[in-house]
Amino acid sequence: MTARGLTREGLAGLAAELIGAGIRVVAPARAADGGVDYLEVTRFEECALGAEMPRRSLRSAFQPATEPLFAWNRTGGRLFLTPAEANGPQVVLGARPCDAAGAAILDKVMGWDYRDEFWFARREATTVLTVECAEPGPTCFCEAVGLAPDSDAGSDVLLRDAPGGYRAEAITPKGEAFMEAHARWFGEAPSAASEPARTRQAPLPLDAMRGWLAEHFEDDLWRDVALRCLGCGACTSICPTCHCFDIVDEPEGASAGTRRRNWDTCQAGIFTAHTSGHNPRADQTARCRQRVMHKFLVYPQRFGAVLCTGCGRCARACPAGVLLPEILETIAGRCRQAAPSGDLA
Question: What Rg value do the Cα atoms of the chain yield, rounded?
Answer without folding.
Answer: 22
